[in-house]
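Q: Sequence in, structure out?
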Amino acid sequence: MSRVVTLVAVVVPAAGILSAAGLLWGVAFRPLDLVLGLVLYVLTGLGITVGYHRYFTHRSFEAVGAVKVALAVLGAMTLQGPVTQWVTDHRKHHARSDHEGDPHSPHLAGDGFVGAVRGLWHAHVGWMFTTKGMERGAAYGRDLFEDRVIRVIDKLYLVWVAVSIGLPFLVGFALTGSVDRGLEAMVWAGLVRIFAFEHATFAVNSICHTFGRRTYDARDESRNNWFVAVLTFGEGWHNNHHAFPRSARHGLSHAQLDVSWIVIRLLEHARLVRNVRLPTASQIARAPLAGS
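A: Exactly. Output:
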C-alpha cells in the first residue's frame, strides 16, 4: 500500500508534469520556461523551508530585517497562505502532533484501509478545506501578530500572489518580446511551479507522517523520507525535525542532504543571520530512539 499511496500522492503528479514538459518541449515549453521555473521553485521554496518553517515558526535563528522581509515575501509567493496563518497552523500541529486537534494528521480518520486513505487525503489536501487557518489567535502566533512588518506583509498577500504568477510573464515577455512566450512562462514558471512545490510541501504532512524511517521516538508518527527531502530542500527529514523542533538543521547526518541548512549556514557566514540553534551532541545522544 505504501508504494501505491506514494505513487499517487507524489510521484504521479510529478511524472505527469515531466511527461507534459517532454511532449511540449520546443513547442509550448522552452529552455527559458525551465530555467525560470527552477529558479523560482528554489527561491520561493526556500521562503517556506528556511522562512515560514525554520525561522518564523520555530525561531531556529535570528535574521536581519531585510532577510526577514525577503523570507516572508518569498514564502507568500508559494500561495500557501499568509505567514501568520501558516505559522499558527504549524505550531498547533507540533503541539498536537498526530493527536486530537492536529490540523493535518493522517492518523485520525479511522481504522483499516478506508481510514488510512481518508487520513492521507486529509493530511495532503483535505485539511485545507476544513481545519486550515482556524488557529490565528494569540495562543500560537502572538509574536507575529505583534510584529508591524509582518502585519503589513500579510495585508499585501494578494500582491505577492500576483507577483508570483505575473513575474514569469513579465520576464518571458521582456526577454522575447512575445506575449505568447510570456504566457508560456507564466504557465510553466508560474502555475505549474506553484502546483509542484505545493504538493511537495503537502507530502511532508501526509507521506512523512506515514512512510519512511523513524529514528527517534518523537511521540508521534513523523518519519524521515529521503524522496520528500529532495523535493523540499531538507524538510523530508521530518522525524529528525519532530525530535529536535528548534534545530535549524533537519538532516542531522552528512548523508542526509539538507539544502535549507546549507542556505542558513551561508547566510550565517554572510552575517545576515545569527544565533543559529542546533542540538548538541549530548542532546542527540540522549534522545530516545524509536522502538527502544
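The mean pLDDT is 90.
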